[in-house]
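Let's study today's protein:

:::
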Amino acid sequence: MKQAAHILLVDDDASLLKLLGMRLESRGFRVTTAESGRQALERLGQVRPDLVLSDLRMDEMDGLALFHEIQRRAPGLPVIILTAHGSIPDAVSATRQGVFSFLTKPVDRDELFAAIDEALSQAPGTGGDGDNDWRAEIITRSPQMERILEQARMVAASDVSVLVTGPSGSGKELLAKAIHRASSRSSHPFVAINCGALPEQLLESELFGHAKGAFTGAISQHQGLFQAADGGTLFLDEIGDMPLPLQVKLLRVIQERQVRPLGSTVSTSIDVRIISATHRDLDRSMSEGDFREDLYYRLNVVNLKLPALKERAEDVPLLAKYLVGQAAERHKPFVKGFSPEALNLLASSAWPGNVRQLVNVVEQCVALTSSPIIPEALVAQALTAEENALPSFNEARASFERSYLIKVLKITEGNVTQAARIAGRNRTDFYKLLARHELEPSAFKAGGEVPMGKAYPLSSS
């Protein structure tokens, strides 16, 4: 049994709740109590227990109904049910549904502790602070994020491929690193590459390697990232931007567990766990023919979807305090934190750039402050500067594409054939571009309502 494991204890009998709580605390457990199923779910939104110990017969919501709701909110969290009305059919039904153990009151002390110890030994991520080293870089108190981290810890124990989805800047690479650290591969390399940041030939060379003379400029042999990550984890960021020809080669490597460098006739066996990530809608990409369905199912064995920062607003003050401490340590040790008004402004902001944008804002504030406490005015200034900041290459390219499409559709009044001819694309490709940017040609006909969107205006010339 790991010390200081946290148990959520649920019973509608206040005296029994107190007595059992004292018994558990005497054994060294941390205990949070709830007098009903509804109250237990409220507690679950505030704390992160390692195990739930619940009475079966309770008003409004019984122990099994509570169990099913816990499984929906926190998959993998073990539940032990106690009842004074125990029967073999009840126990069989409960355990078949996934309840870890079913004990009859008055419960034998040794039997109870044995069941708790067994449940904790099999549950992921239980116990003391040292068990959380794998997720140390992810700062959160959001129940939504905690559920994702529980799932991440569970999937880390297997070797299946994971697809991490979520908006840009939401922390997909941090989650990938956390899964790697929690896995049996943690002592081996974690290698990351952005599939949207390199041209096709260079990306192919980086992933698979090349032999000397494989192409112009290949003056020596180059080991690819699959070989560099052997025994560990390869993180393929922005997998949705990978060109189709490379998707075919990636699928072959995954299926055969062998990689053959460009220009070589020799294949090398590899042992690599793949975690991929994207902010794109891959279902749409598949329907448009831009992403292979067979590769999608190879990569998306488990999908972990990260929320936007505005969906976990309770984390903003926590993250800001952590980040200001990190930035101050590097640049200005006299900076202690944000004023209450500044924290309120941070917490109420929309954060379209998610955690990455928050990092930039905090860095700017620390760089510009001359006082130990960062004032609200400086935060407002940094937020304004971020709104006017130069976009990333991918953001600028997407914005240009959308502006260009709008312009040619305006010129042709929504005539797709003419617009495609001006753009130098065939109709099929042009329709795919329109779908990607959610543009309807009919909106550009006379009297149509042109959809708005973030775009950098093109010259009217």
Q: What stands out?
A: The first strand starts at residue 6 and ends at 10. The longest helix spans residues 393-411.
